[in-house]
Amino acid sequence: MTEFSGRVSTPTYDRSRIKTGVVHFGVGGFHRAHQAMYLDRLLERGLGHEWGICGVGVLPGDRHMRDVLRAQDGLYTLSAVAPEGAWTTRVIGSIIEYRYAPDDPEVVVERLADPATRIVSLTITEGGYRIAAATGEFDADDPAIRADLAGNSPPATVFGHLTEALARRRSRGIAPFTVLSCDNIEGNGNVARRAFSAFADLRDPELGSWIWEHVRFPNSMVDRITPGTPPEASGEIERRYGLIDRWPVVTEPFAQWVLEDSFELGRPAFEEAGVQVVADVTPYELMKLRLLNASHQALCYFGYLSGYRLVHEAARDPAFRRFLSRYMDAEATPTLRAVPGVDLDAYKRTLLDRFANPAIGDTIARLCAESSDRIPKWLLPVVRAQLAADGEIDCAAAVVASWARYAEGVDEQGEPIRIVDRLADRLVPLARRQREQPTAFLGERSLFGDLIDHPRFVTAYLAALDTLHTRGAHATVEALAR
After folding, report:
1. What residues have CB less than 8 Å from 459, skipping those under 6 apart?
2. pTM, full prediction
3. Would you call 136 exposed, middle or buried from its count of C-beta atoms within 10 A (0-12, 13-18, 19+)?
4. pLDDT tens digits for 365-379?
5. Residue 77 backbone zone (phi > 0: left; psi -120 to 50: alpha; other: beta)
6. Which of 35, 135, 170, 397 suits a disulfide with 460, CB 3.0-4.6 Å?
7. How far apart are CA 427 and CA 441, in angstroms?
8. Interatomic CA distance for residues 286 and 201, integer angstroms
9. What confidence tens digit (pLDDT) does each residue in 304-329 have?
């Protein structure tokens, strides 16, 4: 970065005094817009100098983040853009080091094993925990996972790194760090506990039992819509502020973090930075996952098939707005618990306004990616709860049908759709069979479990799929938007 512009908020704390206390796996746009921002806010208040962040990347795509953050001494710009277009930009200073694990896995493991590391946080995506949606079991079939379990080479996965570090801490008599999941999964801490304990159990049953019994995995709810950095963002930062930032973050003004207060070796004073620290995160995470995240899925496949490419364009369509409101009010809300301190009606209105923010430029393709990791975790719990309560399911069933139609890989104009999903090779052929065998896609029990055995759901699903094929996506949305 060049010399800071006076129009940009910059750290006033002495970064040379900050010590690493948090190691974070998965430094992307969301982490830098959210957890790193909250810790920067805390540091700016003169608190938490022992809680600086060491970022870690394990995937090939993380090389670029390594290069950028090293060149910029861990600094980057975070810009919150309001709907009317006003920018509020700050240089974030809470990431004080970054390690690309393939460069030297031993250095990363020892950083994790260091007693100074008290929290290891994660944004490794919903599918990164490798817990099968239908069975709840850990999937160890990935070659990298199997290689880490074999132990014949340095660790390559987040599971390998954390498990080896915990084994060393155990053997050295050092208390375990807390593992803090910040991914969009119901009970994300519980899921992380199952995943890491299962991996460790496959490596060493005694270690697996020790992790299950002694390592804390607090649940959390995280919220800030953060699309991938648009190509023009670096130029815009330079134009506005005279700063050179090779990988800025552009996000919305809204941010929320609700965190279960369960840490083995202490934690930052998150409350001082605006984090809600509570005894039970569940009501908040259900609210967010079933209203915001599931509504994103409700919008994206219908939106793409209707010809929209940006989220705000679809969200400003009156039919889409009514459809999303119907889903949230009639189907998602009845499955929620009371949420302390939250007016749900106001929250839902705020969501619709956030989706419609044109300044963010969020792409529908981003929301359509990795659906097999998202739909089972965000939408299908609503379906199952509503089926059990004899509640309304028409919108949710239509969303699943819209995913099935999208997964055919061809839009309504006959143009190809690039399906980005780890199960694409399995799902696309199923979707392309459904014009002759309408339940082919729904019959994938690894994703949908026994939903194909519920006549009421199948009827609603087939009705929506038929309308998608015969009348198109927008007409289907209009029919449901009441």
Report:
1. none
2. 0.93
3. exposed
4. 999 999 999 999 999
5. beta
6. 397
7. 7
8. 30
9. 999 999 999 999 999 999 999 999 99
